[in-house]
Amino acid sequence: MRQAQKKREKDKVQVALILAFCVIALTSIFTIKSNIDKINDSNTNVPVSEKVHTEEAGKNAAVQNEKNSENTNVASSRIPIVESGETKSGSSAESSTFANPVKSDSAFLTNEYSMDHLIYSVTLDQYMTHCGVDIEAPEDTQVIAMAAGCVTSVYTDDRYGKSIEITHSDGSGLVSVYSNLSTNEMVEVGDNVKEGQIIGGVGSTGLFESLEPSHLHLEMLKDGVYVDPQEYINF
User: Binning pLDDT at 50, 70 and 90, where does residue 139 land?
Assistant: First the structure.
């Protein structure tokens, strides 16, 4: 009897739990459906004027974006594209090329420019830097101005002998110095010289290079700094 009574009580509890679960499930379903209906009603009740305004705003935004894109393309087409190594006019940038200053087929380059390493000096019997180039040629071979310019100095250097300095007029900031000349009396300070004009002769007046054959000691400076003449002259 007691076992049968306990079983009936257990069955009642299970039935009650099942009913409670069903009630909770139904309540949840009705709540979700009610919320969905409210959302649909709110979308349906939007005034027509607001819908039209929203659609027009979207169209206007699209048109404005298209105009902005067109303006950007037009502006880009007006900007000239300059390729690397070219000027805006389309011409390639080139370094200045000067004439060989020694007018002789027998002239040749001996000592090169060497400010970053030492070379041997026969006269001084030591290694030292060399701020120019030496062009060997017979004594009194004509020396010419490598490019047009103004004679800015005529002097005798303690190391490199009779010298002439020309500041070139091409706007490059280049200055050429001709030393170890046999004479520097053919031009004066202030003279304007043309490319190819004779300004002196190859000599041996420089004490620092007196044991070497006759030659022109040539230096070049750009904006006051020594540069390698071979970058500007085709020897």
Answer: very high
User: CATH second-level architecture of 108-231?
Assistant: Distorted Sandwich (2.70)
Prediction pTM value: 0.59
Strand partners, 222: 174, 225
- Give the SS3 label for residue 216: strand
176-222: per-residue pLDDT in tens? 999 999 999 999 999 999 999 999 999 999 999 999 999 999 999 99
- Structure-derived torsion over alpha carbons of residues 203, 206, 208, 213, reported in degrees to the nearest 10: 10
> What SS3 state is found at 18?
helix
- Residue tagged 């305004």 (tokens): 53
Which residue from 93, 92, 165 is spatially nearest to 132, judged by alpha carbons?
165
